[in-house]
Specification:
Blueprint lengths: L11 H13 L3 H8 L3 H8 L7 H11 L3 H20 L6
Length: 93
């Protein structure tokens, strides 16, 4: 099985936290209120316990002035990497 083209993608929640929430000085709770979802949903995304859904991608894109595809591509790259890690032959040094 070939390794994915992306060596090791950034977890979507890490990207949300480090590249969007922190620079905007926005808390998880403030983001949740702004997009009309439960704070727990944002917290779980930021902690890698929940995937970014298409609806969430649309909401995030509107708040951060980017595209839903940006968020979905992050999620897809992350999901593919995790599957590759699970199913690839283990290499020994």
């Amino acid at each position: 099985m070939k390794q994915p083209r992306i060596p090791h993608p950034t977890m979507p929640g890490e990207m949300l936290t480090e590249e969007f929430l922190v620079p905007h000085g926005m808390s998880q709770t403030a983001l949740a209120e702004r997009i009309g979802c439960a704070p727990r949903s944002i917290n779980e995304i930021c902690n890698g316990k929940r995937a970014i859904s298409p609806l969430m991608a649309m909401r995030l894109a509107e708040v951060f002035d980017n595209t839903p595809e940006f968020w979905m591509n992050l999620q897809t790259a992350w999901d593919l990497w995790k599957e590759w890690e699970k199913h690839s032959p283990k290499r020994t040094a």
